[in-house]
Amino acid sequence: MPEILCTPIGFVSSPFKERGDAPRQGKLTDEISLITLKEEYLPATLGLDEEKDIFVLCWFDRSERDILQTHPAGDDTKPLKGVFANRSPHRPNPIALTLAEVIRIEENRITVRGLEALDGTPVLDIKPFRAEFDTPNR
Amino acid sequence: MPEILCTPIGFVSSPFKERGDAPRQGKLTDEISLITLKEEYLPATLGLDEEKDIFVLCWFDRSERDILQTHPAGDDTKPLKGVFANRSPHRPNPIALTLAEVIRIEENRITVRGLEALDGTPVLDIKPFRAEFDTPNR
Fold it and tell me: Nearest C-alpha of chain B: how many angstroms from A25?
């Protein structure tokens, strides 16, 4: 098995500077964040201006990777759940999945609403939301 | 910037053996796949049996990482789009996001419907679907 080595496609600039500053999920904030892509990935944004809702996959570099169970929503009164059964930022591969709203795109700078990432967080991928694939059939 | 090194939490066993075998998206198949987690991650599945729909994040190790624009759905008659504006398996970090249906969980083996991953694909993360976070407000 070769190593799985990710490369940041860009970085987040956000008002959340430290772990305690960020909301639990992006949907719980109206704050604006900026994703600055590396210039070399500009061709990969062709058509992105037609999208309103995008999944942003970030690498939560300030998360813990060896925590396997947490209390949902950080609420100690709730029973422990495995991190694959909740949305904890702490997980073996701290890849955060956040549906954000595109506000503006200017070249390699994508302004979004609803990202909970800390300032400086590496971005791994951007995908357009597709209701037909991303919501249950039922 | 330290290296971003992911570790597979497990692997997919699926009927899709080669690139041409797999459907374009998991929702386009009723085929059953098996995710076998590494034993060490068993504690991270606590409560997963309560979930019906899970996002499976796979590392598409047979994708191309230097393709930045593709024709949507592999249809040459459609204009090129950047890979951040479509759901191509080819992207700088080939992390696939698929909403799959949990059929059965037996210890570290998770049987799901609707995964398009090739046989042997590494799995990076599993997250429960949460409509309040994973669908647009509008």
Answer: 7
Q: Is A17 exposed, middle or buried (0-12, 13-18, 19+ CB in 10 A)?
A: exposed
Instruction: Using only the alpha carbons of chain B, give its radius of gyration.
Output: 16
Residue contact B43–A69, C-beta within 8 A: yes
Contacts of B51 in chain A (CB under 8 A): 85
**How long, in residues, is chain B?**
138
Q: Could you tell me whether strands A81-82 and A122-128 are parallel, antiparallel, or unpaired per DSSP bridges?
A: unpaired
Confirm if A61 and A40 have CB atoms less than 8 A apart: no
The fold for domain A10-61+93-130 equals Elongation Factor Tu (Ef-tu); domain 3 (2.40.30)
| Domains of chain B, residue spans | 10-61+93-130
Per-residue pLDDT of A49-108, as tens digits, reads: 999 999 999 999 999 999 999 998 888 999 999 999 999 999 999 999 999 999 999 999
Say whether residue A66 is in contact with chain B using an 8 A CB cutoff: no
Q: Are A58 and A126 in contact (CB under 8 A)?
A: no
Report the complex ipTM: 0.95
- pLDDT tens sequence across A102-128: 999 999 999 999 999 999 999 999 999
List Cβ neighbours of A68 (8 Å cut-off, separation of 6 or more).
A82, A83, A92, B41, B43, B44
Chain-centroid distance, C-alpha B110: 14
